[in-house]
Amino acid sequence: MSEQIIFDNKQFFEGYKAIRDRETNLNDLLEQPAMKRLLPDLAGKTVLDLGCGYGHNCVDFIEHGAAKVIGIDISKKMLEVAMRKSSHKNIEYINMSMTEIASLPYKFDLVYSSLAFHYIEDFEKLTADIYSLLNDNGCLLFSQDHPITTATADGMGHWNMDENGNRISYTFSNYGQEGKREFHWITDGVINYHRTVGSLITTLAKMGFIIDTVEEPTPKKWAIEKYPIITKEFLKPSFIIVKAKKG
Ligand SMILES: C[S@@+](CC[C@H](N)C(=O)[O-])C[C@H]1O[C@@H](n2cnc3c(N)ncnc32)[C@H](O)[C@@H]1O
Fold first, then answer.
1. What residues have CB less than 8 Å from 157, skipping those under 6 apart?
2. CATH number for the domain including 120?
3. Is residue 1 part of a domain?
4. pLDDT tens digit sequence for 124-149
5. What range defines the domain where residue 183 resides?
6. Does residue 152 line the site of ligand 1, with CB under 6 A?
7. From the CB of 100, is ligand 1 less than 6 Å away?
8. Does residue 126's CB lie within 6 angstroms of at least one atom of ligand 1?
9. Distance, CA 116 to ligand 1 centroid (Å)?
10. CB of 99 shorter than 6 A to ligand 1
11. Does some domain include residue 40?
12. Residue 76 and residue 33: Cα distance in Å, rounded?
């Protein structure tokens, strides 16, 4: 199975960085605060971060008391930033795909992933691999693009506006047709994989996970004050977050 390494594409890498550097990016206003609220107690724990990107969450786990963190990412360019900006003696960064994690010689108390699972074709294998890497009572916490967002066949649904240019609804399609989507985001040809909410949750449950939380984050007052347009998240969620425990 050949995998796309889109974050190593110069134009994509720089475009993504420009988005993340904006004060009003949805990660910082919406997804990251929700993920942080859901973190389990990390004191003395071991953590695996799948698709760790710049490694800022790996540092955060150490600051929350984690004893050891492994951050893996398929992109060399993302890991170069992680090694430069987010290094710590108890963090190890590995350039590998999360499709290969069954080869890791460690066990973990938390497997974490922020906004990377929609790049993975075989969710069943991924969840099976994660399940076997977790210690008993271990926890999986991940976010990904919301299935309403990934559904439409060209990868992008669209907003509908009123006569004043305000968003009033969102049109999407192809929800029940799972699989590959190729679309334009920063560059042409970005690939991700659409799965329904039912399929995500059922796959986890069948693997033996006990679902703790399924959250479709909506903005808090402070985020709305900073970036009023974010109220669009009450019309259509951008992200889904799942916290599940090893049964
Ligand atoms: C949207 S970024 C999120 C980065 C980081 N988790 C964060 O929250 O800032 C997605 C990351 O997933 C990585 N990624 C995509 N496919 C991957 C794969 N098959 N294995 C490991 N990492 C992957 C990308 O290289 C990128 O760094």
1. 148, 149, 151, 170, 171, 172, 173, 236
2. 3.40.50.150
3. no
4. 999 999 999 999 999 999 999 999 99
5. 6-246
6. no
7. no
8. no
9. 5
10. yes
11. yes
12. 27
